[in-house]
Structures are given as C-alpha cells and as structure tokens.
Amino acid sequence: MADTNQNAGRPARVRLGMVGGGQGAFIGAVHRIAARMDDQFQLVAGAFSSDPDRGAASAAELGVDPSRSYADFAEMAKREARRKDGIEAVAIVTPNHMHVPVALEFLKRGIHVICDKPLSASLNDARKLVRASKGKDALFVLTHNYTGYPMIRQARAMIEAGELGEIRVVQVEYAQDWLAEPLEETQAVWRTDPEKTGLGGATGDIGTHAYNLASYVTGLRCEALAADLQAFVPGRRVDDNGHVLMRFEGGARGMLWCSQVAAGQENNLRLRVFGTRAGIEWSQEDPNYLRVGALGQPRYRLSRNGAATGPEAGRVSRIPAGHPEGYLEAFANIYAEAARAIIAHRDGSAPDAAVHFPGLQEGLEGMGFVDACVRSSKRNAAWIKPAF
Amino acid sequence: MADTNQNAGRPARVRLGMVGGGQGAFIGAVHRIAARMDDQFQLVAGAFSSDPDRGAASAAELGVDPSRSYADFAEMAKREARRKDGIEAVAIVTPNHMHVPVALEFLKRGIHVICDKPLSASLNDARKLVRASKGKDALFVLTHNYTGYPMIRQARAMIEAGELGEIRVVQVEYAQDWLAEPLEETQAVWRTDPEKTGLGGATGDIGTHAYNLASYVTGLRCEALAADLQAFVPGRRVDDNGHVLMRFEGGARGMLWCSQVAAGQENNLRLRVFGTRAGIEWSQEDPNYLRVGALGQPRYRLSRNGAATGPEAGRVSRIPAGHPEGYLEAFANIYAEAARAIIAHRDGSAPDAAVHFPGLQEGLEGMGFVDACVRSSKRNAAWIKPAF
Amino acid sequence: MADTNQNAGRPARVRLGMVGGGQGAFIGAVHRIAARMDDQFQLVAGAFSSDPDRGAASAAELGVDPSRSYADFAEMAKREARRKDGIEAVAIVTPNHMHVPVALEFLKRGIHVICDKPLSASLNDARKLVRASKGKDALFVLTHNYTGYPMIRQARAMIEAGELGEIRVVQVEYAQDWLAEPLEETQAVWRTDPEKTGLGGATGDIGTHAYNLASYVTGLRCEALAADLQAFVPGRRVDDNGHVLMRFEGGARGMLWCSQVAAGQENNLRLRVFGTRAGIEWSQEDPNYLRVGALGQPRYRLSRNGAATGPEAGRVSRIPAGHPEGYLEAFANIYAEAARAIIAHRDGSAPDAAVHFPGLQEGLEGMGFVDACVRSSKRNAAWIKPAF
Amino acid sequence: MADTNQNAGRPARVRLGMVGGGQGAFIGAVHRIAARMDDQFQLVAGAFSSDPDRGAASAAELGVDPSRSYADFAEMAKREARRKDGIEAVAIVTPNHMHVPVALEFLKRGIHVICDKPLSASLNDARKLVRASKGKDALFVLTHNYTGYPMIRQARAMIEAGELGEIRVVQVEYAQDWLAEPLEETQAVWRTDPEKTGLGGATGDIGTHAYNLASYVTGLRCEALAADLQAFVPGRRVDDNGHVLMRFEGGARGMLWCSQVAAGQENNLRLRVFGTRAGIEWSQEDPNYLRVGALGQPRYRLSRNGAATGPEAGRVSRIPAGHPEGYLEAFANIYAEAARAIIAHRDGSAPDAAVHFPGLQEGLEGMGFVDACVRSSKRNAAWIKPAF
Hints:
Four copies of one chain form a homotetramer.
Chain A: E1 14-20, H1 26-37, E2 41-47, H2 52-62, H3 73-82, E3 89-93, H4 99-107, E4 112-115, H5 123-133, E5 140-142, H6 150-160, E6 167-175, H7 194-197, H8 202-218, E7 222-230, E8 241-248, E9 253-259, E10 268-275, E11 278-283, E12 289-294, E13 299-303, H9 311-314, H10 327-346, H11 360-378
Parallel strand pairs in A: 1-2, 1-3, 3-4, 4-5, 6-9
Antiparallel strand pairs in A: 6-10, 7-8, 8-9, 10-11, 11-12, 12-13
Helix pairs in contact in A: 1-10, 4-5, 5-11, 6-8, 8-11
Domain Gfo/Idh/MocA-like oxidoreductase N-terminal (chains A, B, C, D): 15-141
Protein name (chains A, B, C, D): Gfo/Idh/MocA family oxidoreductase
Pfam families (chains A, B, C, D): GFO_IDH_MocA (PF01408), GFO_IDH_MocA_C3 (PF22725)
C-alpha cells in the first residue's frame, strides 16, 4: 500500500492486470481481495469488461490508471508487454470459454497467468493451451482455491505421511441450491449456456472443484469413472446434478456428488477419505477443523494453528486457532503461493520447496473429468477412463 | 410386569417366543428390551441357541420356564402351537440364512413372526417365504428398526404431504468401521460367511437398512441401480464396501454408500432427500432432529416432540423434546406397532390406520436390492432392475 | 415378563409399588419404563392418584391387580408390609411436598424407596427425613437421573483418576423455555405453587439437577454460593431463572445458570469442567459423547462404548457406539443400580463395589442448595454457605 | 494498490500510520490485513517499535518509506501533522498502557485514531482521554472487532426491531486456555504485568470484548455487577478467570464468564440472549450463523448472506452464504466503517446513517466494566455500579 515498491526490506509487489471482473462480477472481486490480503500484488491494469464503458468505470472504481484500462484483452497484452513497468501477471476472471484465448495472449508474451477454474470450456481447448504453453517462460496458476485451505493442506500432509494407511474410499461432494429454479435469463446466463460454460454444468462449475480437492488431498488420480448426470430444471441445457462412481489408481474407490439443485445447501463442499488406519473429514462450511477417526482411538479434531496441526497448515495460516479464517483467506493462499513463485522467477531462482499451486496439469485433469462424466453419462454411466 | 394379564383395563400382553438370541448375542438382547419398553409383550418361550446347554442357561437367565426352553425351533413351533397359552408371536434373531426356515415353521401354524433383517440370505429364499406366506393368517414384521425413529416418521409425513415438492435427489449412506480389519475368525464368523450371511456382506447387513430407509421416507422404489462393490480386507469373501447409483420411479436419482471399513465411523446412517421445494437431512447418530432447508428460507431444525413436528412423530415418542430418545426406543416402536396389530388381530379387527411396520414386501425389496447390487457389480456396475 | 420369578438362573424381580404417576403424569411413566428396561422390577401395587377413580383406572391400564390398587399411600404401606408377597420397593412420583410424608410411611416399614427429585419441598422436610431414616434398614434412592448417563460416569471417572488435574472452573447450566409464559393455571399448577414445589422454582426443579451433576462429576461440594434469582413471568410466585456463583472446596470456582424462560431451549443441561491439565464438556441433548480438550493436544470426543471410553461408562451401556442411548436409558441405569442394591440387600450382602446411586445425602445437598440460593437472593446475592 | 490515489472514480485511500505492530506482533499484522482488505487505506508511516532497529526493519518489510519510519510516536505525530501528505489516521497497536498517551498526541493534531482495545490500562486514563478528546475534530475508533461480524449485526438488528421481545437473560462468555500455565516470562510478558495491561487480566483482555458484545447486541448497559475474579496460575499478578453477575437497565439479568485458563478452549466467545419471544445464540468460532429459537417455532439458523438475513448483515458481507468469512473480515469491517467515516469527514459531510463503530464511549464503558469487576471482587463480589 506504500507509494514505493523499492524498499530494500521486501521484494517489490507483483504488478498485476486483470481480464474480466468488472462491476457486479462476483469472482473478480474475490480475486482482488485475495491479491491484496498479503500485500504482494499491485493491480495496475485491466480489461475489466467487454463493454468499454463498464470497463472504464470499473477501472476508475478500482483506482486503475485510465491509460491502463483496456477495452480489449489482446491490446492489453500487447501494450503491457511493451511497457517497462508492464504487468508481470494477469488474473483471468472471464466466463469459461474465454480462459484459453485470453491466457494464450499473455503466456506467449511471458506474462504469468492466474486463471479462474475450470481451465476451459472444452477438453480440446484445454489441450490446446497445454500444448501452446510448452516452452513458454511463464507460470500458470489455476485458482482451485479450496486447495488453499490450511486444513486441506493438513489432510494432504497426513495422507502423504501415511497416517491414514492405504487409501480405500473417497467420498466427495459439492452441493448448492442456487440453480434449483430456472435462472437462465437472469443470474446464470452464461453459466447455463453450453457455448460459454462448456458441456458440463454443475460438473464443470463445482464438480471440478470436488474432483480436484479429492485428487489433491489423496495424491491419487481417477483411472475410470461412471457418471449419471441430470438436468432437473426444465429447459436446462447443461447438467445441474451429477452422481459419479470413481476408481482410483492403486485400488481406492470413490463417489462424487455435485449438485446445484440441492435445496437448502449453500456451498457444501465436503471431503471424506478413509484408509486402512484412519479416516478424515473436512467441510468447506466449517473449514478450520479437520476431523480424524483412527481405528481404536477416539475421534479428534485438528484445529487450524492448534495443537498437533502441522507446518503445512501453519505456513498458510495468519491468525491463532479459534479465530476462524475462511474462503477469502484460502483464496489468498493461492495468490500468496503464486507471488512466491513469481518473485522467485524474477531472477530465475526457485521458490521454497513448500510452495505449490494448481496449474495446467490440474486444469487438464479437471477438463478430462468433465469430459469423461459427460461421455459416460451419454453412454448410460459406462466406465470411462478420463483423458488427462 | 404384573402377574396377571387379565385386567379389564388393558389387553393382555402378547405372549412372545424367541429363536436365537442366547447369551452374548447382541441383537437378541435388543429385541427383548424393545419388547419390554412399552409393556406389551411377555417372553414365555424360546429356542435361544443351537447349543442346548447355552439355550437352557439363557432361558434361566431370562426367567423363561425351563419347560418352554427348547433345543430346537421346529419342536418349539409344534409344541407352542398346541398349548392353550402358547406363544402368539415369535422373534427370530438368528443368522440370516436361518430366518426363512424358522419363519416358515411358525407362520404355517398361525404364529406371528417378528424377524430381524435382512429377510434371508438369498433372494430365492425370500421369494419362497413370500409364496409360502400367502393365505397364512399370521403377521410378518421385519425389524427395519430405523423406520421406528420419530423424525424418520416426520420426514416421511412431510414428503407424503408434498412439503419437499417433487423428489429429485436421494443421498443415503451407512458407514461403520467394525470390519476394517479381519475379524473373520472372531467377532464376525457368520457375518463374513456367504453361506450364512448371504451374497451381500455390507450390502446385506447395512445396505439393506439404507435402502429401506430411503424407500420408506420417500415412498419411492428404485427402478435401476448400478453398483460397484468391494472387499477391501484381504481374504474377505463378501463385500465390505459398496457404492451404488440409483434411479427411482418418477425420475429421482440417488446414491447409496454402505461401508464396514470406513475408519472412524460408528453407525453413521444418514439420509438426505432433496425436492423441488425443500431438502431434509437426518442422521442416526443424532436422531432427535430433522434438518430442513427450504428454498428461500433459513434452515430449521425440527425436534422430536418439539414445535411444528407432526403427529406421525408424536405418536411414537415417549418423552418431551430435548430429552433424547435413541436406538432402543426406535426399535421398540417397531415392537409397539407389531403389538397393536397383533392385539387387533386377536379379534379380527384392524389396528388404527396409523399403525404400520416393515414386512415381507420390504424384506423382498431388500433382498432384491442386494441381489441387484451383487449382479451389477459382477457385470462392472451395469444397470440392473431390482427384482422386487 | 415371565409368569414366574423363581428360576434358578436369575434373582426374582424386585416387587415394586408406585405412589403417584396416574394417567397423564409424565414422570410416573418415565419411572415405569426405566423400571422395565432391564427387567429387574415388577410393578404389582400402587396408589396412583389422590383421585380414587383415576387411581383405579390407572391401575387397570397398567395391569396392576385391583386388590393392590390403593386410594391412600399410608394404607398401601400398611397392607403391602403385611403381605408375604408385598412390595420390596416403592417409587414415589408425587409433587415435591409429598415426597417426605410418603417416604416416611414406607421407610419405617423397611420398604425401599425410589424417590423423584428434589428430595422435598423444604430443607426442614429433608432434614426430618434424614433423621427419621437413621437406623432404618431400607435403601433410599433419589432419581437424579442424569447421573445415570454413561458419559457422565466417564467424566466422573476421569476426574477421579486425575486426568483433568486439579479442578479450577465448573460451568453448569440447565435451560428450558416451557415456563416462558404463564402456565400457572394449566400445565404448571403445582410446579409454580410454593406450597407444593417448595421455595425454589427453577432452582428446585432443574437447578438441583445441575448442582447435583456438577457435584457428582467433580466430587466437590459447594462451600459458598451467591445467587441472583428472578421471577420474570408476571405473577409468578417462584423463581423461573437463577444465576449463581459458586465456590467449591479446594478452591474451584463455578457458575450455575438455571432457567425455565430461556426461549428456544428444550432441556439444555450442560456441564463443563476445567482443570489444570484438561477440560471436558457434556450436553444432555447430545449425551453419547464427552468432549475433552487437554492442554497441548487436539480436542477429542469420547463416544459411549467407543474407543478409550472406560468401564465405568461401559457397565451402564447397552448397545454399541454410534447407536444412541438417551434419557430413558440413563434413567433406567438408576433403577438398575437400585435393583442391584436391593437384590444384594435381600440376603444382607453388599452389591458390587461399582454400584452407586444418589440417595439421602444428595437429596439433602440439593435442598441445601435451593435454600441457600433463596436466602442469598433475598440478601442481594450475599455469599451463603449451603447447609448440607 | 495502484500507484495513484487520484482517480475520479473513487475517493483517495486513507493515509494511515501505525504505532506499535513491529515484527512478531500479532495484532499489528491483523490491523494491517484489516486495513488492506477493502483497499481503503494506505500504510505510509509508522513508529513500529520502541526498539529503533526493529522499527526500521519492520518499516522496510512493510514497504514503508524509511523517511517515514519513526523511532518515537510523538515525533511521528508532529512530523506527519506538518506534511501535506501526512497521515490522516493512526492505528495504535501498543500494549494497553500506551494507548492513551499515544492517542493524545495524534488526536490533538486532528489525526484520527484507530485504537486497539481495551481503551487504556486504567479507568482514570480512559477518563483523561475522553476529557481531552472533547472538541477535537478527529474520530476515535476502538477495534472491538467482534462487533464487525455480520451475524452480530444481524442479532443487534433483530433485537432493535423487537423480534426477541423484551430482553430477560444475557449469557456471554469468552474462554481461552493460552494462559493456563505460567507464560509470564515468555509470551505474556506485558499481558500479565498490571502496570502495562491494567488491573484486569482476563477481564481487561477478553472480558471487555464479552461485555462490549453483549451491550452492543442488546443495546443495554449494565447497571450493577458482582464479580468473583481469580488468578489460578501460581504467581500470576492479574486475574485469569472471572465470573460476573450482571443487572442491566430495564430488568434484564446476565452472567459473564471470561477465562484464559479454560483448558481446551481456543477463542470461544459466545453470546446468548433470551427475550420474552425468542432467544439467539452466536459463537465466534462458528461466526457465519445465528441460531434463533422462538417460542412455539422450530429453531432456525440464519446464515450470513442467506435467506431472511437482513441488510445490516449484508452490508458488511463480501461473499455468498456458505462461503465462510472469519475474524479478519470482521476486523476489516471495523476498518471499512472507519474509512467511510474518515472519507466523509474530509469534506465535513456525514457518512451513511448505517455506518457505526465502537468509540470512546464504548472504551470508557469497557474500562468501567474492568474497574467495577476488580472492585467488586476485592469486596467479595459486592454489587458495584460501573462508572461509565
């Protein structure tokens, strides 16, 4: 927040641009708060809207210099790349189908990309992006923000350390109700348009989160899935509920449920993993705790920054146990990891070994998951091997 | 508990016999407490064990007259049927494969049967029993005891009254961990022996409960299912974990998970149902409450005997809201319903219209469910129409 | 439930009478279920109501022989004492002010008493009973039923074993809302009449439970208290809310809150105890768990009959962990303890060392608590040493 | 975060300085995140530590220009007041005894103060500040941060609207365990030194939060209190546990418990308020929900930004229901309110009527609460009227 970025004591903030996220957009505001939380980014440019007036108004509201408010993302990429003080990274918060074309413009100019999920509207687009990014000297960060929750880091560390034994069963679900009634003409215009959101509706929007979370925590990839997708709301063109059986590498089995028509559910992302020795349970709506049940022991509850919670959670926590952190802090953790990587990249060094974030591979797997679900469901829930 | 059964003020207690349930058997003791709870039954005879000494010792411990302690259930059926004061009903609490042969002996003599679940060890046996019971003047009660919970009655009444709208999604699960390690030689001898438990392991033991509960509450039958069953514990001969996709009549879809290897889970039977207007959630481990989330309203919690909870729950509750009832009270509700029906049956009348309990049809559907799961899983989770 | 009580395998059931508990009375029905639960009692006589017709009708409904249905409790005591098969114990479930006169009639004839709480309507009455019972060869059991909960037994055992260290703080509360509005003329006639209920309203009815629970679990007695009592409902003649500061022997301090006007509360009896090493938390509305937080460890949850829960809880549990027990089972545990003591008493032996139940001393302490609260509150919350 | 503050679209960020909050200080970092969250502040100056080297290092780390890093807060006040671009507001995050002397230096120069709580180390100091601030044209914001939680705003609005009826009972508690063992020489040097923390230990540090929260939500002030304070840890010079009876204006009664020795408790601040019509319950460790129980209705749960939650909560929420916000967001809401007031103050206008924050009066009441607790406890829990 200081005028200068040049003090000896700290690296300069990362100069950030944004594509999308104009007035009224939910996720753009979230990205900006996340970027601000730890004071590692500085928003200096943007193509905030495809509507130039709205874009300019957004820029003004955000304190972005009018000369760096662009009507067109390609123009922005070109001109920012030429500036000495041009952006180092761009946050992409557009509808899904625009992620890839926007990302390509910036990546090819060596500008790092922080992109909202899912990676794309189609598996083909995702593959195209992966191919195009080969050899580019720019980072790609996909905001699978739930992997930023400290207790999710804790869960992953415990599984990696073998505390659960061999994984047998994975139960993951993400249930909402905001699309329980037709909102096609109002709040959910692009979210329910297969051209823009992609072939998966709930599967793409939240099923990818659930899949990513399960895979991130367990370290396992799904080898085959069988999906039964539904569009319950009359006239809906994409799925709004999905039931998926999963078989993971190594023999673990799982179920995934994603729904946007589950009346009474807000953002109920919940993960349970059971191994030969212990099981864990975590819920996004109560994210500061991880419940653990080990064979022959009473269940216990690990608390963020509390007793027996490990350094993997601690390094992404800001305040003491019992003071809840939430969604924005978890989202900010993805940005903080990105900042660490970008700052290290400035002089070609590597960030601390603990730094990690979801990227192109996770994005590709997410699109492979959606693609496999849609194909399986069309074939009456036949088993499909996701193409990763 | 009085010496006499002949007071004007109340009908005589139902004279009850028991097959199985000798010393050390868990479920026999539960049936006896359930029968005692509301003072409608009197245990007067039994063939408590296939081991005659253990049977006699059990009878003595239970205060059953030695002359009515039988070494053999067929003998018991014959002799009790001849007595003027012979048993009116028999509780069958043997291993699964004995349910049908025992039931047949009593039913054919007009003695009512109260039988533990599942109905049998095989679908064929179940069908045989259903055929044989045709035209018999005796009641058959299957102790799907979870349907005795007041808040389950409440949930069913709400759905029947249309408060949830049209049902879209059913999520049901029953997770335990008591078979997470091999107990084949100790606690789970017959439960893991396909000859005695049937082809389904977890599916038969607890999957049938989960399926029955979902069907009871929603009033819907499953038209097709796709099951992926596993036997995770090395050497196990029956499934110990099952993942099932379900399609219900009328278009609802569901998932069922049953597991006996879910480390840290005790008896986590949980049902969630979502309709076009509202969703509900209930858990056996916290059974005195029903959580309801209706579109556009704050979530609320109905409490047994509390405000806005209806008569269907009230008629099977004993104590005020805030004083928890549990598993035994719910089990006793099945016995209380049976007593009402048996007492009415004495003079050929019908019990109150509200009286109901699971019976042969539910038992048949349970075995159809297990059979379909096993067949589907063998065919790689192909869709199977359960044979009901 | 068998016709005969004389089998070798088990001691004969305790012959039980009841005073009070006629049709419509809540607590009488609870006592009867509790007595039946473990099949150790046989209800054979009663003076169920001060209204003879209602008494007779109740007897008929309960299957009690008309010749042993009495219009008068003194008559009942006299005649039952003369019978060879007369009652061995009487359950007293009358309004508070009748507890002592009824108990005296039976105790003096050597008939054991199982009495509802509080012990009396006044401290003087309580003292009179204690004096009168000296030298009588009869047991006195006071149904402070919450001490029958397995996890309360567990809590007590842990504290006795020093697992919490030295006790510092006790927080206990019992909150209801059933008297939030005037029910003086309908449901709460005697409960709000100081002649019948005693000088304490909420303090006598539920405050005594809270105090007893705290004292039972910690093993500590209150040395001084300061109480601020209120009668919030206009026209109420007894307190309906009480706030109490407590100082325990050994230096622990506590707070007690009892309320019958806490809108939205059902039977929220909750105890928390904190020592130098660990703290525990238990709630009657979720009674199958005990939460434990030890310094430097993650919080854990002991489950009835679950891992690491001790034999003190196990011996009063009936079913596996995860299958909830509730209020009636806890109440039945008091009856079961009473039965063990009564049966041992038959031949002058002592019951197992683990057997214990609340009795006259606890009753006296409860009345001392109420008396001290009332006196303290009248003196503007001055510190009072309860007279025990 | 932009270089310039001068865009038409938004008011310039508030230029902020900080006193205290150098490296390793917990609460300073919290204030900075809170200030950044909504991008309304710009940290441009500081006297971060009484140790000049640590102060300079902190400034460098925070990106504050070395020329505006001061070794002395009085010097800072003087020099910043002279600059055209000097700070508009100062955040005071020192130990308690320094709050007043620091605040006075800035207030007298017309620089707004955002001060951590409690207001001072003594009631006298608090009064001195209140007197000195009379007629000063500067705002004073006290970070009683829990009043920034959306559901606390909701609770207050409901009570103000009469939804609970007339308030009868207030139960509030704040329990921690971080001082359960002696930390006098390490983590809690100044917190346990009466010269620096003030006469109240737990009462000053967290009891003031609990009192403020109860008073803020109910709109009631305590007219008299009786306190029993303890210092359980051997050698401790200030209280570490306090039990307080309260009498509020209008007849409501309450209890307050604050403890820093409650083993197993993290930051358990919990408020329950009961009125003639309904009761509410809120917990800081689960802050996104408000539980409501109205007479004759099932309990319901209001969710931040969820159905039926009002605009008072909505205006201080950032993200949809089901995505948890936490401690930092609530803290940031105090800063956001401060920013609105400061920005309005620039041109002498008033902020929106909904804008409010704790200030000197609340600070004075907090110190009056501590003072009354300490005096009452010394007089054996005599009733004391807090001096506000």
